[in-house]
Q: What sequence folds into this?
């Protein structure tokens, strides 16, 4: 499948500050990609370069097969992080205006606008002024502005910020619907569990560098659980666990115990052995959340614990592998 | 591409013009003002002097003026004075109108105008002249002038004391004596004027009589009729020297230009800042390029300026036609006004777009805007010297150097001595080149500025952005 976006050694600096450094990536058509990273990591700059709102200092960029988005703007839907509406304009007029700018002008446009407003429960807002709408409602209007012209590529920058759970779910379903319709969807967020829930593939950016570029399954496999969490019914039960072969260490944690495993040991086997040794009130395999992975990567230079050494090595390998895609 | 630019231009235009604020500010208020002027004039006209009736005391120390005063302040005397005033007013009007006076002679002399002027005085004052001997107690007479004594039997409206030497000069004195006039408080100034003129005429009559001179003879002797000043031009034509009306036309042209350019430019600044501060700009930039956005905005606001210019110039032309002065204008003058509007607007709008894109709120725009505004205001200081001598070196230089050139040139074009065509062509060429440069500069600043938030920049920063872009 051809790639919707190709970045090849893209660098962007603002004065002294390097916002994006030597970025390589390829987003295949029809994929649902997440850009994750802390605030100020370079996500928005990367997206703005994809949108040709900013231009890279170095590197090669291809968007929907064109050298820059300037030539394919009408095929891209964009919900910027810094989003706004014309306060004094009526909602319907605003969406019609944006639709026209996006090259979707024509007799069917207004009908489409009304249809979308109905879909997001804003059917009665057509004639309202934009500043009469709540922030969440405005966000839905902006979402419509991004998808109205039926683009092939959709980019949402921090789409969920400031939304209540109900609208968050509504918007998420709309994303997935766009994705299922075969469109390429990219969204950026600093809220990891959103990315975890939604995306097939993640690109993690930190301080202008791409630090991770892998599918969610790959990440899960990479950060294979090597920790078992259990709470014995009797406090004495924990001591015996330390002597089980394959167990590296047992550390008490909030009334429970965390069992770290040696490399090459199968977790189910150890779990069975623990259960034979002592009755437990709870036992679980601890999967690292994306947040753990993220914090792990971001703070890896600060943490110097020995048992993380291998993980760190793997991560670096991973990052290097990703960078050469 | 064109569809996008025109969509932006239309939004810009409609969101500016089709608002209550604009319709009220641009049309309703000037219209009300225009309607109010005749009302105010009518109101002032109808503010007649209140009737004045009463005794005026004369203390004639010269002993020769009293009969004259009685005569001049009698009912017939006052009527004559009013008639004289009315013809004086007509004369002044005629002078203001210059060459046109002949055309308007009949209207000016119509009974309607005469009665209108007479109306202004209200009912003529009815005065009874009471004479008092030279040694009368002046204090006692003055007391009778007090407004609180108005209803008293012996109330006075005025008291005139004629000096002993008012008619016969004292030996060795350099001048004649005059008279002192006391008037009851709150007397209408038009009536005071009439009484003073009556007294003056009476004193003059007495002096002529004493000197043995015929009064009518004196009037003939002191009146010098002068034909209106005519200028001789190079072609040998004699024509009337610049009159007020001829001075006004260049001024009106300049004001029209300044106003229409400023209105569009100011709105451009406001909408650009609004787009930036409401963060709608990034949505726009995902659909159009900064250059398309700026072009659309500039063109949209230009239409706003065109609307203003058309409406106001239309009113101006209609007024001139109504006053049969349309020959002052010619189509080519209006065409030049249009051309210079476009050029001046592009220069001004470029700066406004650049400034609007660079700042975060209107308040921050002020310091950047001031120098630009000053340039537009500068022509105010120069229109008079340019109108007086439209082909002076100063006028020539100003009309060639942008950004002043459009304003200076329209003043010259509208003046009574339009510049030769080659000068207009040269000025248009220079100004157009400058305008293109401004648009180029603005486009660079606009592209960078739109996404820059934070500290408001100064002009040095703007120049750095231009280098960056």
A:
């Amino acid at each position: 499948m051809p790639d919707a976006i190709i970045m090849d050694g893209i660098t962007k600096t603002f004065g002294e500050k390097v916002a994006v450094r030597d970025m390589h990536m390829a987003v295949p058509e029809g994929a649902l990609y997440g850009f994750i990273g802390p605030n100020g990591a370079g996500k928005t700059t990367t997206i703005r370069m994809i949108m040709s709102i900013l231009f890279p200092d170095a590197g090669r960029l291809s968007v929907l097969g064109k050298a820059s988005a300037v030539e394919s703007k009408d095929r891209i839907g964009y919900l910027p992080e810094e989003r706004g509406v014309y306060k004094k304009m009526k909602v319907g007029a605003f969406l019609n205006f944006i639709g026209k700018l996006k090259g979707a002008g024509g007799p069917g446009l207004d009908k489409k606008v009304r249809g979308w407003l109905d879909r997001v429960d804003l059917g009665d807002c057509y004639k309202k002024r934009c500043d009469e709408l709540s922030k969440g409602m405005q966000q839905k209007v902006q979402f419509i502005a991004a998808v109205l012209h039926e683009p092939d590529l959709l980019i949402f920058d921090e789409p969920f910020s400031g939304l209540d759970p109900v609208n968050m779910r509504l918007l998420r379903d709309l994303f997935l619907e766009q994705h299922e319709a075969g469109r390429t969807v990219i969204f950026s967020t600093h809220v990891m569990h959103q990315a975890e829930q939604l995306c097939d593939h993640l690109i993690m950016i930190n301080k202008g560098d791409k630090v991770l570029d892998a599918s969610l399954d790959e990440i899960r496999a990479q950060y294979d659980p090597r920790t078992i969490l259990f709470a014995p019914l009797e406090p004495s039960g924990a001591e015996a666990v330390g002597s089980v072969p394959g167990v590296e260490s047992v550390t008490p944690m909030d009334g429970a115990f965390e069992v770290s495993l040696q490399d090459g040991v199968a977790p189910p086997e150890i779990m069975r052995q623990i259960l034979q040794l002592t009755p437990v009130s709870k036992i679980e395999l601890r999967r690292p959340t994306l947040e753990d992975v993220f914090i792990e990567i971001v703070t890896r230079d600060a943490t110097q614990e020995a048992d993380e050494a291998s993980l760190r090595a793997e991560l670096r390998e991973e990052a290097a592998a990703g960078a050469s895609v | 591409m064109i569809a996008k630019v025109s969509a932006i231009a239309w939004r810009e235009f409609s969101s500016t013009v089709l608002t209550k604020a604009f319709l009220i500010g641009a049309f309703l208020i000037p219209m009300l003002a225009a309607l109010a002027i005749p009302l105010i004039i009518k109101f002032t006209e109808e503010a007649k002097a209140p009737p004045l009736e009463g005794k005026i005391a004369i203390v004639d120390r010269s002993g020769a003026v009293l009969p004259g005063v009685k005569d001049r302040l009698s009912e017939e005397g006052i009527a004559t004075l009013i008639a004289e005033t009315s013809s004086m007013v007509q004369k002044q009007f005629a002078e203001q109108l210059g060459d046109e006076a002949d055309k308007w002679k009949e209207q000016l002399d119509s009974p309607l105008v005469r009665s209108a002027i007479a109306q202004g005085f209200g009912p003529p004052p009815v005065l009874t002249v009471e004479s008092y001997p030279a040694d009368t107690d002046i204090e006692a007479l003055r007391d009778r002038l007090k407004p609180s004594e108005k209803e008293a039997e012996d109330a006075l409206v005025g008291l005139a004391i004629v000096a002993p030497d008012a008619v016969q000069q004292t030996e060795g004195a350099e001048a004649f004596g005059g008279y002192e006039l006391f008037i009851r408080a709150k007397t209408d100034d038009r009536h005071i004027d009439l009484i003073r003129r009556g007294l003056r005429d009476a004193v003059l009559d007495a002096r002529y009589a004493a000197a043995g001179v015929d009064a009518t003879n004196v009037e003939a002797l002191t009146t010098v009729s002068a034909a209106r000043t005519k200028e001789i031009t190079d072609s040998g034509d004699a024509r009337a020297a610049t009159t007020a009306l001829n001075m006004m036309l260049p001024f009106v042209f300049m004001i029209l230009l300044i106003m229409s350019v400023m209105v569009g430019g100011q709105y451009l600044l406001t909408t650009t800042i609004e787009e930036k501060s409401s963060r709608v700009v990034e949505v726009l930039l995902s659909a159009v390029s900064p250059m398309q956005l700026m072009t659309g905005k500039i063109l949209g606001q230009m239409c706003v300026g065109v609307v203003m210019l058309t409406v106001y110039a239309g009113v101006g032309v209609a007024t001139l036609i109504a006053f049969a002065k349309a020959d002052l204008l010619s189509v080519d003058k209006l065409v030049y006004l249009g051309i210079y509007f476009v050029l001046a607007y592009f220069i001004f709008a470029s700066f406004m777009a650049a400034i609007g894109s660079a700042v975060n709120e209107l308040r921050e725009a002020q310091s950047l805007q001031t120098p630009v505004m000053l340039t537009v205001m500068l022509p105010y200081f120069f229109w008079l010297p340019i109108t007086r001598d439209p082909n002076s070196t100063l006028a020539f230089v100003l009309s060639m150097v942008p950004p002043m050139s459009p304003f200076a040139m329209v003043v010259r074009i509208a003046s009574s001595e339009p510049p030769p065509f080659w000068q207009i062509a040269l000025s248009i060429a220079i100004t157009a080149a400058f305008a293109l440069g401004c648009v180029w500069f603005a486009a660079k600043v606009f592209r960078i500025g739109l996404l820059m938030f934070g500290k408001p920049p100064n002009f040095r920063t703007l120049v750095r952005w231009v280098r960056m872009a």
The longest strand of chain A covers residues 3-14. Confidence is low (pLDDT under 50) at residues 302-325 of chain A. Chain A is about 35% helix and 25% strand.
